[in-house]
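Here is an idea for our session: we take a single protein and study its fold together. Start from the sequence, derive the backbone structure tokens from it, and show both lines together. Once you have written the record down, we can walk along the chain together:
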Amino acid sequence: MLLKFSKMHGLGNDFAVVDAVSRKVYFNKEQIEFLGDRNRGIGFDQLLIVEPPTSPDMDFRYRIYNSNGSEVEHCGNGARCFAKFVIEKDLTNKSVINVETKQGQIQLHVQDDGEVTVDMGAPSFAPADLPFDATEKQDDLYTLNLEGYGSVELTPVSVGNPHAVIRVDRLTDEIVSTVGPLVESHSAFPANVNVGFMEVMSRDEVNLRVYERDVGETQACGTGTCAAIVAGIRQGWLNSKVTAHLLGGDLRIEWQGEGSPIMMTGPATKVFEGQIYL
């Protein structure tokens, strides 16, 4: 099969995007692993598949696979690329696009300047929604003991996928590479977890790095940014509108508090069009 795709990225978080609306396309785990191989395939953090909706009030279905073949619930950077893709491929002419995900539903707003605002829905801080086998808690912070390291304080957040947010005084390579994998695969998170490390610069600005579940650190993580900012707002560290500086660039997050949706705004970039034999 000759597979056509678009290579895209959101702040360096890179994707291969495939149209499965115009032509039905199915992938098995081995095929996704091949496509995700940066030496032998296309190479990407995630494969995004645009499918027809299963619900009549939705425009599309959005499926996301890591390069190891595992399917995930949500990807915020990918959602922005998804919106740009369906417009450029003339799959829709709407500026507000309703999309199904494995987790539920999201809404994509395409701005006149080409940036995309994603309505990520309301977050949950309930440990069971991650899931997280809750440990000692104080002031909405949970203490997690890490073998060979000590303990960290974290805020568990679900934004359709699970996140553990850790505030640090100074963001370093060492803390991300050491603590990231220890928390990601900790037994308190039965399904593993994405780990965000946030350095608060002011009430309107943070530095952020995310160690993603099953992937490792990436240039940017949209859901991780949303999780970190809402955790910071809930803890009283941040205002309702915040700019997050990631390795790949900046995202703008707005959250008005309990029960409100998270609004994430940022760029989506097409790198090239390609095709590959599968």
Q: What stands out?
A: The chain has two domains: 2-121+267-277, 127-260.
